[in-house]
Write a structure and sequence with these properties.
Largest sheet: 5 strands, mixed
Shape: elongated
Distance between the termini: 34 Å
Number of strands: 5
Low-confidence stretches: 20-24
Mean pLDDT: 85
Helix content: 25-40%
Radius of gyration: 20 Å
Number of helices: 4
CATH architecture: 2-Layer Sandwich
Order of helices and strands: HHEHEEEEH
């Protein structure tokens, strides 16, 4: 096991949330300083709350230094039909982008997503089971928003770590 750890350190592997250096502190404090801007509609509320759990809730009381703006586009398509024309399966496609800036005046852009992140999920609509269909739809939307917030949190953490490691901006 020790040989495996030594081998990983030789190839440049470092834990994402590990300390950058003793003087810089850890990345969790930087992530806790990120505030999530408003995201509208019910699905936007799910996304915003999921992002807040990943950033603001990690170390409550951390002063805000960064503003994260998120935009997404949610599309749906029908995948299955019954013989009578009723819908039996729906797929959602989610595309999302983000922009991180400082909270100074004027705000300075720190990083942004280079390409939109894409997430897919689908759910079944059982015959005459309306509550089950609603529950399936809500669960699919929640999975989509959690997947998008995971990817955004990962990308923001990488950008903040890169920023701390570069001598010009750190």
């Amino acid at each position: 096991m020790l040989a495996g750890l030594v081998g990983l350190s030789g190839c440049g592997f470092r834990p994402l949330y590990g300390p950058v250096s003793a003087a810089d502190g850890n990345l969790e404090a930087e992530l806790a300083a990120v505030r999530v801007g408003p995201v509208y509609e019910r699905t936007g509320q799910l996304l915003r709350r999921s992002l807040q759990r990943r950033f603001e809730d990690t170390q409550p009381g951390t002063p805000a230094r960064y503003m994260l703006s998120v935009a997404y586009d949610l599309g749906s398509e029908i995948l299955g039909y019954r013989q009578d024309g009723g819908i039996t399966r729906v797929r959602y496609t989610l595309m999302g982008t983000w922009n991180l800036s400082t909270m100074s005046t004027p705000p300075q852009r720190i990083a942004a997503s280079s390409i939109p992140f894409r997430e897919l999920d689908s759910f079944n609509i059982p015959d005459l089971q309306f509550f089950a269909a609603d529950s399936s739809r809500d669960a699919a939307l929640e999975r989509l928003m959690d997947g998008l917030s995971d990817e955004i949190a990962r990308q923001v953490a990488l950008e903040l770590r890169r920023r701390k490691e570069s001598p010009a901006t750190g």
